[in-house]
Design brief:
mainly alpha; Globin-like; globular; binds protoporphyrin IX containing FE
Length: 135
């Protein structure tokens, strides 16, 4: 059985990302990074991605191609503060699920690592000079 099945399959991921985006919607600085007025499509992309990552259907790749998350986040200034906001909403969303301790730990561990990997902007550095890339 995949991790996806073990934690309850589609309804679990639907609830997780729905609760997560409810949090994002109320978090002004984080919300401001999302280009679309409607968070529905972003919610759907994150759901498909997570379902695929945890061993469920691979609709994400069929629709979007290789995840390349770091590249896809490059247009958005992900600071440590934004990472922490993102993480806070994800942990709150996880708390609404009935995960056992082992699954909750594994999921949290993945989110911590993934969110940290996506930090691409140093909030204390000021604007990057022309031509300097921020990793
Ligand atoms: C660290 C803080 C993070 C911030 C501030 C952030 C922000 C964003 C923003 C603004 C978008 C564009 C919205 C859209 O889909 O139209 C996005 C897309 C996305 N993010 Fe994040 N994100 C973060 C972390 C993560 C993490 C940890 C994951 C995965 C575990 C993730 C997965 C995705 C996916 C799958 C998409 C859609 C990519 C696509 O197919 O275009 N993000 N994110």
């Amino acid at each position: 059985m995949s991790f996806y099945d073990e934690v309850g399959g589609a309804p679990t991921f639907e609830k997780l990302v729905h609760e997560f985006y409810r949090g994002v919607a109320q978090d002004e600085p984080l919300r401001a990074l999302y280009p679309e007025e409607d968070l529905g499509p972003a919610e759907r992309r994150l759901r498909m991605f997570l379902e695929q990552y945890f061993g469920g259907p691979n609709a994400y790749t069929q629709e979007r191609g290789h995840p390349r998350l770091r590249m896809r986040h490059a247009p958005y200034p992900v600071t440590l503060d934004m990472r922490d906001r993102w993480m806070r909403h994800m942990l709150a969303a996880m708390d609404t699920l009935d995960l056992d301790e082992g699954h909750a730990e594994a999921m949290k561990d993945y989110f911590l690592r993934a969110a940290h990997m996506l930090v691409n902007t140093d909030e204390h550095a000021g604007p990057a000079p022309e031509g300097r890339t921020t990793l």
